[in-house]
Specification:
Layout lengths: L3 H4 L4 H16 L3 E5 L1 H8 L6 E6 L2 H11 L3 E7 L4 E8 L2 E9 L1 E4 L8 E4 L2 H6 L8 E4 L8 E3 L3 H6 L2 E2 L6 H4 L2 H13 L2 E2 L1 H5 L1
């Protein structure tokens, strides 16, 4: 499934920025995906210009390449431990923040602890997310721009209006997900899936 048509309907500066990021990622032999709320909300037809990108292998390499490629791009923050970076693009006088993170897996020494992070593959990155509807990725590479990667049934859960966790230890890893489940259910007018509700 592709949502290129939905991407083309967002603010033109944001759309062009996503294309540019995908082009630079390809030149660096990296795979970049739009993830999080913007990916979900595009599929639901909601406005959301909060750009979160996950990068297979090394987001910090992509961050450096984007700063070099675009004089209007500044590195705002970089966290080696978590493999994340925040960039600010000045596009026609409009400041557009972009969060980059390497695809990664997380392990928790105990509930609610800060995770130990190691770079990993896209599947392991997506399964660590809170709910299936937030575990969707949209390719930014020129060859398959807008193609949705759905490894855990998120598209089906969007269609059926369900909030569903990705694994049984999800609430143990991060207890705040229980609150987020209720908030998403109210905000989106979704139901919390039965197994998720019973955990």
């Amino acid at each position: 499934m592709t949502i290129k048509d939905k991407l083309q309907k967002i603010d033109k500066d944001h759309f062009q920025l996503l294309i540019d990021i995908g082009d630079v990622a390809k030149k660096e032999n990296l795979k970049a995906y739009l993830v999080g709320g913007m990916a979900r909300d595009l599929l639901l037809g909601f406005d959301n210009l909060d750009i979160d990108i996950t990068v297979e292998n090394n987001s910090l390499t992509l961050a450096d390449a984007l700063v070099k490629a675009f004089p209007n791009c500044k590195l705002s923050a970089k966290h080696d431990r978590f493999h994340t970076a925040k960039l600010i693009f000045n596009v026609n006088g409009k400041l557009i923040p972009v969060d980059l993170a390497s695809t990664r897996e997380e392990t928790y020494k105990h509930p609610a602890a800060l995770p130990d992070v190691k770079v990993s593959e896209l599947k392991k990155d997506l399964i660590r997310r809170d709910f299936t509807i937030n575990a969707l990725a949209v390719s930014l590479l020129p060859d398959n721009f807008g193609e949705v990667v759905d490894l855990f049934g998120g598209l089906n859960d969007l269609k059926n209006k369900k909030i569903k966790i990705l694994h049984d230890k999800s609430f143990i890893d991060d207890p705040t997900r229980m609150i987020r489940a209720v908030r998403f259910a109210e905000k989106l007018d979704f139901d919390i899936e039965e197994k998720t509700q019973n955990l």
